[in-house]
Each structure stands twice: as C-alpha cells, then as structure tokens.
Design goal:
Length: 97
C-alpha cells in the first residue's frame, strides 16, 4: 500500500482500447505534482481544488484505490490513521472493500 496527498489539479477519465476505465488524477503539493492512474471511474472521489490523501495499491496499468480523505484547500493534511472528521476536514470517504 502507498499513500499520496496534495491538491487536486487534474481529474480525467480515460477509456482503454479494451473498454476499461482509468481515472487520471494529478495532485500538487510543495511545488511538485504526482499523477496517478486509478482503476475505474473515480472522478467523484477527487473534487477539484481540494486537498486529498489517497491510499492505494500500485498496479499496471492502474492503481487500486483503497481509501481517501478529502479536506479543504490550504489545510494541513490529516494525521495518519485518523478515523474521524475534524480539524477542518469536512468529508471522510471510508475504505473501498
């Protein structure tokens, strides 16, 4: 499992030649940007201009999204392992199982 966090700057749905959907997400933090390809249509999980922390299992051609915490722009990221809403965070989306 890996975790990535940052401000959502790009969310794009791509359909592969085989008809599978991949959600391309770019997160910006600290002057750097990370782009991750998530399996399936995950667009609703990544609101634009919001801070997110996403846990996922890497894979090829796409990563499996496990859990996501969505916060407000400009706030400090949540502490690892936080399970409750608080400290400025307005939504917690529970793990995908």
């Amino acid at each position: 499992m890996q975790t990535v966090s940052g401000m959502v700057t790009v969310v794009h749905l791509s359909i592969t030649g085989g008809g599978s959907s991949i959600t391309v997400v770019t997160l910006a933090a600290g002057g750097a940007a990370n782009t991750i390809n998530f399996c399936g249509d995950q667009r609703s999980q990544f609101p634009m201009s919001q801070f997110v922390e996403a846990s996922f299992n890497p894979g090829s051609p796409c990563a499996t999204l496990l859990a996501i915490v969505v916060g407000q722009a400009g706030l400090t990221p949540p502490l690892r392992g936080r399970k409750s809403i608080g400290f400025g965070y307005h939504a917690v989306l529970w793990p995908f199982t």
